[in-house]
Amino acid sequence: MDPRNDIQRRGGGGGAHTGVFLGGSPALTGAQSRRRKMPPRPADYKLQVIIIGSRGVGKTSLMERFTDDTFCEACKSTVGVDFKIKTVELRGKKIRLQIWDTAGQERFNSITSAYYRGAKGIVLVYDITKEETFEDLPKWMKMIDKYASEDAELLLVGNKLDCETDRVISRQQGEKFAQRISGMRFCEASAKDNYNVDEIFLKLVDDILNKLPLEIPNRELSNSILSLQPEPEVPPELPPPRPNLRCC
Ligand SMILES: Nc1nc2c(ncn2[C@@H]2O[C@H](COP(=O)(O)OP(=O)(O)OP(=O)(O)O)[C@@H](O)[C@H]2O)c(=O)[nH]1
After folding, report:
1. Does the CB atom of residue 227 touch ligand 1 within 6 A?
2. Taking the model in full, what pTM does it have?
3. With a 6 A CB cut-off, is 103 part of the ligand 1 pocket?
4. CATH number of the domain at 45-211, please?
5. Where is the major localization of this protein (predicted)?
């Protein structure tokens, strides 16, 4: 069975409805009034995911497609790091996902590397139409081995699948690369066509949840998994190097 089928999706992100009223203040029904008084249910988990890969592969585009369902034909290159937050529901749990979008340009590596350690999931992206972005993958794996937590979930993404006619990296090449890295998943996607984008992030979250203990008291969570609040304004301290290299 395809594990993606297990992913439950939820539309309506928080149920922010806008009513149209024809004059005057609308009277609230009993049910509406009760609903307004209900505070939003806090997140069960807060997780951090980082997107890395060479310049122009579509990291920002994947993030923005997932968080805002938008696509920019001519985006500016990311400077340093940027982040967005999206709340998703999986297996009855509410998860506040913080997605870090990193600059692909090498000159920002010293900044971006500081964000690897806190990530429970890492999305490594290449462009299926640009060979050099695929050839750069071992370099990105070295960054992961050096800076990321050893138990971070890894997902390799071949982006720009809508450009099939310009493809220079076959699906098999992507699959083969991922198979050589312990625990790394692989998929192809298109931020432009919104193909496999939700699946990338939801599958990653699903895999992360799989690794977490089933029932953790909320108090414990707030000291560990929920450690992202308040949002960090400065990068966390650099972690020690990973002892067991995953890169081949
Ligand atoms: N055809 C196509 N173009 C895409 C896709 N995703 C991104 N692009 C385009 O590729 C270019 C680079 O996209 P970005 O999302 O800025 O890439 P990035 O990896 O964040 O780039 P840096 O911030 O420089 O590292 C933009 O012109 C996007 O419109 C896609 O799925 N298909």
Report:
1. no
2. 0.77
3. yes
4. 3.40.50.300
5. cytoplasm
